[in-house]
Amino acid sequence: MLNKINEKKATKFQPVAFNAKKLAETKRASDPAFKQAYDELETEFAALATLLEARREAGLTQAEVAQRMGVSQPVLARIESSLGSRKHTPSLNTLKRYAQACGKRLVISMV
């Protein structure tokens, strides 16, 4: 009986490191359909990265940003995730409030 317990401990799940960025780069290089779909979402991915970076730089959690914006944490999670899904695009006013909650200001530019 003890041997079985020790075997289970020895074969305990070992998580594998996952690098989403590296996987995406590999798939983009080898799969034209994936590359096209990924490239079409480039703006949304950049916007999401900007939001997450602002929150990280401010040292805030989703709950803290949500509180500062006057919304719930699940609403803020939807705002952040919507940029990658294209289901609901946050308004400029929402993005301004997010920026202010992180001690930033929203700047829009075209290049």
Summarize the helices and strands and which ones pair or pack.
Blueprint: H1 2-10, H2 20-30, H3 32-40, H4 42-58, H5 62-69, H6 73-85, H7 92-101
H/E element sequence: HHHHHHH
In the CATH hierarchy, what is the superfamily? lambda repressor-like DNA-binding domains
Helical fraction equals 55-70%
Q: Which class best fits the helix and strand makeup?
A: mainly alpha
Oligomer: single chain
**Overall pLDDT, averaged?**
84
Please name the CATH topology. Answer: 434 Repressor (Amino-terminal Domain)
CATH classification, class level: Mainly Alpha
How much strand?
A: under 5%
Would you identify the CATH architecture? Orthogonal Bundle
- The number of domains is 1
Radius of gyration: 20 Å
Largest sheet: none
List low-pLDDT spans: none
Distance between the termini: 68 Å
Count up the helices: 7
Q: Tell me the total number of β-strands.
A: 0
Bulk shape:
globular
Short description:
This protein has helices at residues 2-10, 20-30, 32-40, 42-58, 62-69, 73-85, 92-101. It has 111 residues and is mostly helical. The longest helix is centred in the middle third of the chain and has 17 residues, at 42-58.
